[in-house]
Amino acid sequence: MISRKQHIPDIDFANFALGNIKNLFVQNKIYINEEYQRGDVWKQGQKVELIKSIFNSYSIGVLVLYINDKGQFEILDGQQRLLTIFKYVSDKIDLPEDVTKYSELEENDKIFLNGYSVYYLKLKSHNPETKEEDIVQTFLRLQEGSPLNKAEKINAYRGTFKDVFLQERISQPMFTLMQGDKRFRLRLLSAELLLLELESDFKNKIFPSIDLPTFKVVINKYRSKISDIKVKFFRGNLDYIYESMNMMLTALTPRDLIPLYLLISYLRKHRADNSNLKNELSVFIENILQELNSFVITDTKPPKGMPANRFKTLMEYKTQARGATTSESIKYRFDFFLSEFEKQHKIILKDTKRLHDKEQKRILYLRQKGICLECNKIIDFRIDGSAHHVLAHKDGGKTDDLTKAVLLHEKCHQKLEKRISKENQNNNLKLF
Ligand SMILES: [Zn+2]
């Protein structure tokens, strides 16, 4: 016999009497999981229509409720309807004149209303291990064909990937300054940037698409873990955006945020000297945003003072960026931002060769006649000898350029590095 894992929860068809719904809320038997739901978003008119439907004995559709660990009804579908009923029987909805308040209903009407049947599908999971997934999958299936957007779908998943992008959305001041979080727009942005950080090949400038199928794969891949180093780097990039833009963030669109993020991540990974990156970014972003926002995509002529060539370039960028989630569009935008940045700032890449090899050390040893340039004592080349980049490797010092290298005792090298790092700190302090 074939044994199959049960993935679909048990489903029962059941109903409440409307008169019991208030008690269920009051007794905390109904649980609204914020992760799946959109809050109380129905407009006044929609609420009134629902109440009228009930009075006219029309169906209000079938709710979908999931029985969770605590025996509560977790709402998968029907939150707006249940909330509206709860508010109506609690006299908490502003009503037009033709609808009577619940507390002022005549006795017969109240009995009729309290007896109205609200039908629901009752879901219960068999398998404690796949329970979370059952809920998500069932929820997503229920939403097929209904206008649940990409952000809301991604948000319905659980796991480490979601924990990280949600945490940044909540705690990163950059997102607080950006406008409008309707339907999880900012959560989506946070998720997109995280996906790009984790899945891009920055060295070869190859980027993933940020469509739903890609998200599904990545959410699964990082279901249980993302390394601390990667999370920290991701945060660091967002800090750069926040600190170099600040109030300008209120005017930043997702179109430009994505290439900006990629530019910063790329520079931090591969550029030799980023000691002035925040200031460089401030000026760069202000200029490019000003240009990009000086005309709209339907304009046929450049704004005053903009050369026709420049107009064409910027228009091409805007066109490429419009709502696109393909890896080609993302690469186009990144390349554009990088080339614009390069017009203003020299980008010297870090030397990929980090350490001096034995042969290079031997050359240095002979050149220095065996003397350590830190303590002026003899080095025993058989057991010791550490080569120091006079121009630091992280600042673009080339390992193969022996005119900028010296040989030291291992211990003297460590001492020297400590002194340099202290001096750098002091110099940085002096700037402020
Ligand atoms: Zn020494």
Task: Walk me through the structure.
With 432 residues, this protein is of the alpha/beta class. 50% of the residues lie in helices and 8% in strands. The chain has helices at residues 21-26, 44-55, 79-89, 107-115, 131-143, 150-156, 160-171, 173-177, 185-199, 212-221, 228-245, 254-270, 277-292, 308-321, 327-344, 358-367, 410-431, and strands at residues 10-17, 30-31, 63-67, 73-77, 117-124, 386-389, 405-408. A 5-stranded mixed β-sheet has the order 1-5-3-4-2. Strand 3 and strand 4 (73-77) form a beta hairpin. The chain starts with 9 loop residues before the first strand and ends with a helix. The structure holds zinc ion (ZN).
Overall pLDDT: 87
For the largest sheet, list the strands in their spatial order. 1-5-3-4-2
List segments where confidence is low: pLDDT < 50 over at least 5 consecutive residues: none
* Whole-number tally of structural domains: 3
Ligand names? zinc ion
What would a concise description of this structure say?
This protein is α/β, with parallel strands linked by helices and 432 residues long.
SSE blueprint:
Elements: E1 10-17, H1 21-26, E2 30-31, H2 44-55, E3 63-67, E4 73-77, H3 79-89, H4 107-115, E5 117-124, H5 131-143, H6 150-156, H7 160-171, H8 173-177, H9 185-199, H10 212-221, H11 228-245, H12 254-270, H13 277-292, H14 308-321, H15 327-344, H16 358-367, E6 386-389, E7 405-408, H17 410-431
The chain binds zinc ion.
